[in-house]
Write a structure and sequence with these properties.
The protein is α/β, with parallel strands linked by helices. It has eleven helices and 14 strands. Helix 4 packs parallel to helix 5 and helix 6 packs across helix 10.
Length: about 325
């Protein structure tokens, strides 16, 4: 039962929608933290969810306390209860509706995310921030600007999710266990997602040996549209089980200072010949956030795709300052 003396520290999840509440539950069930703080602007909602989660503790056998806090982004009310968080996961903002692109959310979510980042910086100046709000690459850049944090301490969650989706689709198509499949996607969370075929294997064999090119391309397109596919089926709200699993695993890597290499949205400055942009790359994750960007061996085609993605994302991130 639990981790006994290794339970320490505080993590805050901002936003108690499906994504935020599921992330908070996963983090609490890891039994690694003293406290998980769950915040929301809807009065009573985070407190109610926290009460419910705490009542699961005797059943699931974890001692991490969940604390719900109603906050107000404009006045900063409630944020004092998040003070001293080691890690903050930002899920605040509106989800997509069917037919919307992630970019359609940019103006509304920029206002919300900026306010959140300022409040976090005030109360938890040493935190690592994991951003999951959409559009992801732009909101990660905005969070770093608004918080004023060093860039290694602001990370976006996208690659873990996109890679998981790609892996699942491949495993499903080949009727093999997901554990036998390795995939990788880099670039952006969206149109300029760059799958890395050279790093996609099934039981160590290249994916290209097992599936024809057009089938692989079909799975890539499905991965790129993975979120929209879920949104179209749900009709209200967007994916949260897989995204929250990804955010929770990143949080865990920071908390355990594990040095795990994960595909994330990180500040790239010189790696792959790309500079000055938040981009989906593989990085080593630890207590300081991004310990280093891992320069994977890429084929010329893959590298060209990554550089193209960098320019597309850079153009959008340049506009973020004015939001």
């Amino acid at each position: 039962m639990g981790h006994g003396s290794t339970r320490r520290g505080k993590v805050t999840v901002v936003g108690a929608g499906f994504y935020g509440s599921t992330t908070a539950q996963r983090l609490a069930e890891y039994d690694l933290f003293d406290t998980v703080i769950l915040t929301d602007i809807v009065e009573g909602k985070p407190e109610g969810l926290a009460l419910d989660m705490n009542q699961s503790r005797p059943i699931e056998g974890f001692e991490t306390k969940v604390v719900g806090v109603t906050t107000d982004v404009a006045s900063g009310a409630g944020y004092e209860k998040t003070a001293g968080s080691d890690i903050v996961v930002v899920t605040a903002g509106l989800p997509r509706k069917p037919g919307m692109s992630r970019m359609d959310l940019i103006a509304t979510n920029a206002r919300i995310v900026r306010g959140v980042a300022e409040n976090i910086a005030k109360h938890s100046p040493d935190a690592v921030i994991i951003v999951v709000s959409n559009p992801l690459d732009e909101m990660t850049a905005l969070t770093q600007l608004a918080s004023g944090f060093p860039r290694n301490r602001v990370i976006g969650q996208a690659g873990m999710l996109d890679t998981a989706r790609f892996t699942y689709f491949v495993a499903d198509a080949l009727a093999v266990p997901v554990s036998s499949v390795r995939t990788l996607t880099l670039g952006s969370h969206g149109d300029t997602m760059v799958p890395v075929p050279s790093r996609c294997t099934v039981d160590g064999r290249p994916l290209g040996d097992l599936l024809p090119g057009d089938k692989i391309e079909e799975l890539v397109v499905r991965t790129r549209n993975g979120g929209a596919e879920v949104v179209a089926l749900l009709k209200t709200g967007s994916a949260y089980y897989a995204p929250s699993a990804a955010a929770a695993r990143m949080t865990r890597a920071v908390r355990e200072d594990s040095g795990a290499v994960m595909p994330v949205c990180a500040w790239v400055d010189g790696e792959f010949g790309i500079s000055g942009v938040y981009l989906g790359v593989e990085a080593e994750i630890g207590a300081s956030g991004i310990k280093r960007v891992v320069e994977t061996d890429l084929t010329d085609t893959e590298l060209a795709g990554l550089r193209e993605a960098a320019e597309a994302v850079r153009a959008k991130q340049a506009d973020v300052k004015d939001l």
